[in-house]
Amino acid sequence: MAHSNRALMTVEQNIYIPEFDIDTNTYKDECPYKSGGFSLMYQCRCKSGASFNTIASYKQHIRSQHHRHWISNYKNYFKEVDEANGRINELLGNLDKKNREIIRIKKEYPILKSEFSILKNENSFLKNENSILKNEKSFFKKESSILNKTIKILKKKIKDKKKQIDKLEEQVNILDNQFSEVIN
Ligand SMILES: [Zn+2]
Description:
Elements: H1 2-13, E1 19-21, E2 26-28, E3 42-43, E4 51-52, H2 55-62, H3 65-72, H4 74-77, H5 79-183
Antiparallel strand pairs: 1-2, 3-4
Bound molecules: zinc ion (ZN).
């Protein structure tokens, strides 16, 4: 995909395309060579086999009658083709991006899958732990309730014993008094 994209761009680079002048709404010649730059061979679509590869030959070519007629009627000849090519390049670029994204996702997928499986296992482990803790909690609740009941019973027993002791002390006092009266 990247190869065909590059090939198309290479073809475009070697075809002379005039500049669009927004002010006049027309196409005009614009020298493709920068001074001192490497001279590429350009094909001009004004005539079959027309080409140039230097600033001098470019300047000579654009003065030809064929070329002048072509540039003044450029909209009729190639405007749509150029726009379509631009759109194709844009779409190829998008496709390239999408392909790279697919490759990236394909690489990430097994990692995410294994991470998901680990999380699933952890979740099941935590669920199990939670259920154990719930059981323990319920067991401690029961234990605590039993202990509370036992404490209540013991408290009552202590109270009863205290009452018995008080009663016994009273009886001992009475007996003590009676004994001292007998002696005296
Ligand atoms: Zn030409």
